[in-house]
Design a protein that fits this description.
The structure is a single chain. The chain is of the alpha/beta class. It folds into 2 domains: about 1-20 and about 60-135, Alpha/Beta hydrolase fold, catalytic domain (Rossmann fold, 3-Layer(aba) Sandwich), CATH 3.40.50.1820; about 25-55, no CATH class. The protein contains 6 helices and 3 strands; from the N terminus they run αβαααβαβα. Strands 1-2-3 form a 3-stranded parallel β-sheet, with helices on both faces.
């Protein structure tokens, strides 16, 4: 949902996604039960518009529509059985390719809710929002540079 909101507005100074679904098409392949247990119940007219609905909700396909003025923090547990950590990795790769400001934090051995690392995840989130919202830090230079 965060990606969907960001797709529609540039009002946010920063965003944070925890174990976010970035590719609904891939999730159907990984977990076929999601199609009948979640998608069909939550996505309007899903059965008739399946392919279109999956594309519309797969942020990895439309990162260029996200406002580059909103840096995104992505946090993911590597032991998440509900959603493959590859969703976060693939979204990070797409954001990198689009030169969209982001940070990816993978918590080793953490579950879907980051239960084992709750304090660390909260600290990461607080620092992210403090940096860009409270302190108004400039966005990072995403062009290749350095020595």
């Amino acid at each position: 949902m965060i990606y969907q909101v960001l797709r529609r507005t540039d009002r946010f100074k920063a965003a944070c996604v925890v174990a976010g679904i970035a590719d609904l098409r891939a999730w159907v392949i990984e977990r076929p039960d999601i199609e009948t247990g979640v998608y069909a119940q939550c996505i309007p007219d899903y059965t008739r518009r399946r392919d279109e609905a999956l594309r519309e909700r797969s942020a990895v396909l439309w990162v260029d529509e996200l406002p580059t003025t909103t840096p995104i923090l992505i946090m993911q547990g590597t032991a998440d059985w509900r959603l493959s950590p590859m969703h976060s990795l693939n979204m990070a790769a797409a954001l990198l390719s689009a030169k969209h400001p982001f940070r990816l934090v993978m918590f080793e051995g953490a579950d879907h809710s980051l239960t084992e690392v709750r304090e660390s995840a909260q600290r990461e989130s607080n620092e992210w929002f403090d940096r860009f919202v409270r302190d108004g830090a400039p966005l990072p230079n995403l062009e290749p540079h350095g020595l």
